[in-house]
Amino acid sequence: MLFTGPLLVQRYRAGADQLPAEVAAVKALAATYRERLTDVSWFMRLLNEAIARQANAEDNVKGRFWEGRFRSQALLDEAAILSAMTYVYLNPIRAGMAETPETSAHTSVAERLAALPGDAEQGRATSSEDGPINAPDAPAVRVPAWCETLPLQPLMPFDATARLPTAIPFSFEDYLELVETTGRCQRPDKRGRIDGHVPKLLDRLGIDPEAFIAASTTLLTRFGSAVGTPQRLTACCAERQARHLRGMRMARKVFQRRAA
């Protein structure tokens, strides 16, 4: 329970004797509570507050939660989705916690690779043995009991044919090729270089390969509240009635193929 309620409500729920005026006050509060139950904004505020309090307790910190840890960015097109997915999945490799996508703990790439026919047991063993579960000095995270009853959400499928109504609009093979190529190019001895073969997805979406690789470690930080091609950022500006959006220069550099 997030809130215990005023003393009048607590006494009412406990079945204590109350004066008519006190009962009337409880009924007025109940009407307010019913109205809040239909208010999505109120629900989100309480949900965010509960998550923030739990996370602050786990990290042993105080203060504003969302401002210090997270920011949201609208992904306006396929190029933005692809860039964000690659950036996130390569975080363990950049941090030195894994050497390859299949050994990255707690990523959907490792989970998808483990589920491939013939490699399932090997993938699961590699992911659990080589990938760190928690940082050595991090306190154990206590998961509320009610969280354990929630069903696991299945991973969204990849589908390059557009036949499925809801899917990631690429083939998994092409996406894995891009992740592996980008990961290799982020190594200190090969940073920023693509040797020979250009990943199919970059070519299909008109993304400049060299610019994408060079900016892959900091790409999302170069944008503000939206990520996308120059055309989509311009359209987003018009929709928001804003003069400009941060990241236009990076969008022109990465998402606009230079003429040969």
Automatic annotation (TrEMBL):
Gene3D superfamilies: Transposase IS200-like
InterPro entries: Transposase_17_sf
MF-aspect GO terms: DNA binding; transposase activity
GO biological process: one example: DNA transposition
PANTHER family (UniProt xref): TRANSPOSASE IS200-LIKE DOMAIN-CONTAINING PROTEIN (PTHR34322:SF2), TRANSPOSASE, Y1_TNP DOMAIN-CONTAINING (PTHR34322)
Protein name per Swiss-Prot or TrEMBL: Transposase IS200 family protein
Organism from which the protein derives: Halomonas ventosae
Phylogenetic classification of the source organism: Bacteria, Pseudomonadati, Pseudomonadota, Gammaproteobacteria, Oceanospirillales
